[in-house]
Amino acid sequence: MADLSIKDIDQIQREVLEANDLVWNNRTSPSPNYDPEKLIGDALRKSEKINYRFGVARCLLNQGMGAFIVNHDVPGSDRLINEARTVFSELNDAQWVANADLTQAIIKNSTVNAETALYLGLKGMEYYDRQPEHNDFRMACYVIGTIYKDLKKHEEAEKYYKRGIAEDLVPNSWSARLYTGVANILNDRGEYNEALSMAQNGLRLLKIEKNVIGISRALNDIGAIYYKLKEYDLAIKNITEALEIRKETKIKHFILGSLIDLANVYADSNKTELALGCLLEAEPVAIETKHNGRLAAVYQQMATMYKALGEIEKALVTYEKLLAVNALISASEKENKISQTELKLVKEKEEEIERLRNVELKNAYEVIAEKNKEITDSIHYAKRIQNTILSPDDELKKYLGEYFIFFQPKDIVSGDFYWSMVMKRPYGNEDFYLAVCDSTGHGVPGAFMSLLNTNLLNEAIYEKQIEEPNLILNYVRQRLIDSISKEGQKDGFDGILIRYCRHSKKIAYAAANNVPVLVRKNELTELKADKMPVGFGEKKDSFTLHEMDVIPGDHLYLFTDGYADQFGGEKGKKFKYRSLHELICKNASLPVHAQKENLAVVFENWKGSLEQVDDVCILGFRVG
């Protein structure tokens, strides 16, 4: 990982997410164009290489889903999904915790563990109840509806299916499954024609989506409806077509369902040999997938058919197999009752924990609120102290004339500061010093640094009688290194310090990283600056002294990086210096108060709902 650049890591993360999105969004529709198992295996190795934990969790979830769909490996699927859920929880990703719950819910339901499935499904649905516009909302509705359907709670099932359909603005494969879900309920109610219409709507959407697994499910459902209508030829045609698709995709528990359904149709249409052939084919599939409930149904029907055909010995052997499977089912039901009891206790424990947590949170909130008020009051008091070091308005007006300051701290107090000093010189001369600076950090740490930095500027000019702006910055830099950067900390400031004589219209300045700009006759000029901070840095050269004459009508602007670095706009990008320069040049002909207002409006509109990323300070004045 040490050899990888940030660009390389970003590219790997994109590849991992693209692979996972492809498999997740097409999990019900295998494609011959890629191998999901290999694709996700490669993505998992990439994620582990760069320690991309979200990518690892996505891969584990997809692998868990594949373990069930392809291999019907329920323990392996449980393990992988639980690992994924743990990582999603640690990352506080509520959406993907919900997706892990819903994925595991549909698997539990497919293995006849409906109570656990419902518990997991409803937990997952809590997230999508708040996000009905999300693509996976319909998936959540389908999962809950199917669990309720299999529990024979048709009213609740229909409610969830129809809720998903109602939010169906852009139909997809989940939309089709919602239609087939409603069709199954109508079929169970005996409303066969309505069921057939719904199932055919679902099949039409699935064919548009080219969702082969969904198509097989819809065909099988349509066959089951025709079976209820006693239209056996149409039932056989649709179920056989579904079975062929399922054999091609090698999803064994789906194959098992079609074989049993087809056997029922053959049996009722007096095609006993064909029915028996389906059951014999179903037996090893049921054993392999450990689906004891369906295996018992297979043995029951096989034994009945052998008896009807007069093959008594085969009937007896099959009955013995049935007794053995029923014994396993009985033992499993006892375990399931125990697990249901445990589940009930877990839910009760969770509810009690949640109740206690709410009480504790309320108490903690009250304590935090009180502490927060104390801290906030202290910071507001610190703001009053910090305001005393900022240049007073009357002094700026006296020495600058027409000026404005757009000063907007990220927090209550600021690492940015604007500072001025008037130094009396011999023979009645005065030097006016003005600085706009960006201290390391923002908020309280930044404010402490701004206090220190202004103190050192005062010390350099007032106590040490240093006159030239570059030598003042040299002095302050050395004092910072000696006092707080002995162990390599890069604390200090970027900034611009000018010495301005309003009468002679002469300016001398030094600039550390921040670049001042001059606007003269609607043309903007970036002035020179040294690319090094006032503080510990790679370069320790003397700061450069720049001198220039200004003329009436010139505008000079000093600013920190907060405005240009603000994220916003339609694409959430930085405002950038180029845009700031264009805005300054465009506004320069306006009165100074209007320039400030325009800067504030543009900044707020650009930022929008995004957080302010840094302190902002822009000072501009017109040479009179």
Give an overview of the whole structure:
The chain has 624 residues and is α+β, with helices and mostly antiparallel strands. Among the domains are: 251-352, Serine Threonine Protein Phosphatase 5, Tetratricopeptide repeat (Alpha Horseshoe); 390-622, PPM-type phosphatase domain (Phosphatase 2c, domain 1, 4-Layer Sandwich). The chain is built from 21 helices and 13 strands. The chain has helices at 6-25, 36-49, 53-71, 74-90, 94-110, 114-129, 137-150, 154-166, 173-189, 192-209, 212-228, 232-249, 252-268, 272-288, 292-308, 312-389, 393-400, 443-463, 469-484, 577-587, 592-607; strands at residues 402-408, 416-424, 430-439, 492-501, 506-512, 517-520, 523-526, 534-535, 546-549, 555-559, 567-568, 573-574, 616-622. Strands 2, 3, 4, 5, 8 and 9 form a 6-stranded antiparallel sheet that branches. Strands 1-13-10-6-7 form a 5-stranded antiparallel sheet, with helices on both faces. A two-stranded antiparallel sheet has the order 11-12. A hairpin with a 5-residue loop joins strand 2 (416-424) and strand 3. The protein is elongated, with a radius of gyration of 37 Å. The chain starts with 5 loop residues before the first helix and ends with a strand. 40% of the residues are buried.
